[in-house]
Amino acid sequence: MNSDYVEREKIYTGPLSIVYKAKDARNGKIVALKVVDVDFLVKPHNIKREIEFLKLQGQVGGEKFGILQYINSYKFGDDDILVTEYYDIDLNSLLVSHKKRSVKYDWSNPEQNKYVFKNQFPTDLATFIFYKLSLTLKYLHDECQIIHRDIKPSNVFFKQNREGEVYEPVLGDFGILYDKKCPPPDEPPNEKYTDVSTGCYKAPELCFGTTDYDTAIDIWSLGVLVSRMYSNDGFECVKNDSGSDLGLIHSIFSQFGTPNLESIDEKKDKRYWPEMKGNQQFEMFNFNINERRSPSELIPRCPNNEISVLWDDLMVYQSSERPSARDIVRRIESIQ
């Protein structure tokens, strides 16, 4: 590995990459090294595409819009190494630090004792992060014509001061980005990969094999992320404990209602999903009928009713009806 980066400390190990904290021996700056063996990458993961994008953002000032700051990149044997700004904490760790656990005892049957979680994440910070990430997505979607495809708390980073207070969020991990201006040869606009997004952050249309999706999948993921910040227990509004698309769909339908292909009032019915007409994967199932739960149930700690209404508009099945990042920014600014 490049001798310019010393005192390396492994801080993350994943199936496709390893991340180190290191010091730049030339100037003493603390940096992050993302190491990827390209022989083990699974499409659509592409470290070269990520490096190209972040390098360009470093040239045009993308860090002003909350984009991970590029420093350097190089090869070492079979590995591609991306050097970026180092951030002290990610949103996932920040949320965990504000989640308190207690035990609810069953004195008659101790084996039935249950853990109870209480979310104490500051709601003003949650609204701030919602707004700033929307600004970042507005820049990505409108100016860069990029679909991130992996919005989740562990990809949102912060600098911290000595008191533990965080600065503005920064979005990272562009390993599966989709460039609408220059679609990759193996992913034409109408034939994109659906194995994108992580766990419960995956938009419902992806679970049914929709390949002509657009930036609305990032908006859904953002909504799930926001639900975790405003929850009572520090968990997302939907679950994907089984790790399967079917399990995720079951959870989504139980929270947001079972979608339908016909509606009396199409504009007001958030369960109306005309995109699925003719989709064999959707039409072959006979789903249990569930009603849509209210924002007060799904994001109970949200302190502002207008923010709750905005969030509810994000979480609709018909992707074309989800507000754009530009719309979200405008609506939050009108509230503040």
TrEMBL record:
Keywords: ATP-binding, Kinase, Nucleotide-binding, Transferase
Entry annotated with the keyword Kinase: yes
Any matching Pfam family: Pkinase
Domain Protein kinase stretches: 5-336
Biological process, per Gene Ontology: G1/S transition of mitotic cell cycle; regulation of G2/M transition of mitotic cell cycle; regulation of gene expression; signal transduction
GO (cellular component) term, any one: cyclin-dependent protein kinase holoenzyme complex
Descriptive protein name: Serine/threonine-protein kinase Cak1p
Organism: [Candida] railenensis
